[in-house]
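Progress narrative, work stream C.
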Amino acid sequence: MSSFKIREIKPEDNEQVAKVVRSVLVEMGVPKVGTAYEDKALDDMYGTYQHPRMNYFVLESEGKIIGGAGIAPLAGLEEKVCELQKMYFLPEARGKGLGAQMMDTCLKYAASQAFEKCYIETLPYMENARKLYGKSGFKSLEAPMGNTGHFNCTMWMIRDV
C-alpha cells in the first residue's frame, strides 16, 4: 500500500516537479505556448515560491513526487486575490481523493495569508480538474482576471477563501 504525503516543496524537488507538470500537460494535449508548460518558473519551482504569500506543495509517495499545487498572489490583484497554480497529478495519484486534500492544503494556506478570493485558470477538456474545482466551491467566470500570461487557458473560476 502506498503512503502519500503533502508537504512544502524543497530545492531537491525541482526536477521532479517540472517533469510531473510537463508530462501531465503533454498527456492532456495542452498547447505548450500560452500555458504553464513554457513558464520559466517551472525549472525552479522552489525558488519561485520563496516570496511572501507564496507556497508550493508537493504530493509525495515513497520518495517520488507525483503531484503538486501552489498558491501565489494573482498578478494585478495581489492584495486580495490569490491564484491556485500548477496543480497537476500523475495518473497514479488520481481518483484517490488526493486532489481534494491538496486543494484543502492550498486554501488553508491562502486563508493564512489573508487572501479573500482564490482564482484558477484551466482548459475545457480538463474535465476531472474542473469537477474537483466545482466540488471545492469554485464558480465559473466569464473572463480572465489578473495578468497570468496564460492566453490559451480559456476557462476561469473563482471562490471565496
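Work stream C, second folded protein:
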Amino acid sequence: MEPTGTGEVLPLSRTGRAAIAAAGAVERAITMAGRLLILVSGIALTVIMTTNVLTRYLMPSGGFAALQELPERLFPWFIAGGIVVAAQAGGHMAVDWLLEFVGNERRRRWLLHLGNAIIVISYAVLFQQAMLVADITKIERSPVLGLPGSHGYWAIAACCIALCVIHITSSVRIALLGTSRRFSLDYREA
C-alpha cells in the first residue's frame, strides 16, 4: 500500500511490490550478516580477552602474545556489525528533529531522499578512501602473527558499502511506503 500524503492508502503496483520485496531481501541479508558479525566477533573477543587475562596471571611467561594482537583485528568488525544493525533501526546519528518542521508527507519524503543521497555519496567516498588506506597499510605486519595492518580499514570499507545499501533501500521504502517506514528494523528487533 502506498500513502498518498492525505492519509489515504493506495495499493502498490506489481513493480512496487517487487521493489519492496527486493529491498527487504537485501536488508534481511545485511541484518543477518551484521548480527552474525556481532555474535561471532563478540564471542571471540570475550573468549580471547578472558583467556589472555587468565594466562597473564597463571603462566610464568605472562600469557600468549598472539592473544594481545587478535582483539585489535576483531574489534573493528564487531563495531562495523553494530553500526550496520543500528542504522537499520534508525539508531545511528540522524537529524530527525528537522522532519518535525517540514509540513507535509511529500516534503518529508524529498528531505529524506536528499539526506539519503548525501549519506550514500559520503559513504561511497569514505569507502574509496578506506580502500586506499587499506592498500597502504597492508604492508604493515603485526609483530607476532604477521597479519596485515589493513583489517580495520577493510571493516570500515565493508561497513560503508552496507550503509550505502541500507540508505538506498530506505529510499525505496520511503518512495513506496512513506516516511513512517524508512527503517527496516524496530529497536526491539535490533
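The helical segments are 14-58, 66-88, 105-137, 151-177. No further action is required on this item.
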